[in-house]
Please model this.
Amino acid sequence: MRETPEELEELQALLDSSLSRSTPHLRSIINTERTLTAKRLTQVLTGMCTLSLATVTAKCEPRISGADGHFLHGKWHFGTARGAAKARHLAARPALSAAHMRGEDLGVFAHGTVEILNPHGGEPAADWPDLLSYFKDFYGEDAFDWDEEVVYYRLRPHWMTVYAPDDSKLAPAGSVLTWGTGRARPLGRG
Model:
């Protein structure tokens, strides 16, 4: 968990306000008994979490694609190739919807606007050096040409909700449940 108490407070306020502003239909599915607190969410969303990302083309046609998501400081961070279609879409239209789902056990849904963390030829985000260190540690120092090849984003959500019907079934990302024990153990990367 990398979140400060202030970041957890901000995330909890967003989760609460998002659920209260949701439709009656959504609130019949996601309610206070079938969701997670901000603190618990940050304990579950560790390591790499596969995201489904929705962008829009210039013709207003929806597009969905996948990305490695990292939930850091209470927000999704993800990267892609600088020449990818989603990078072009986000440069022109920075609105994004993101979903992370684990079967029927967890659904994290967010809508917001992306911030480019390492713009090509531009000033990086103030926290980019710390984030870059995290990504290099996770993927490997030489995994990419970090300046030229990849662009990273932070989703600044204005709406976010979590579906989790049974918290006891949730293990942190990057863990596996050991068969027959119901307990999580770390998943090796090598």
The longest strand covers residues 150-163. The domain at 5-163 is CATH 2.30.110.10 (Pnp Oxidase; Chain A). The chain has a mean pLDDT of 91.
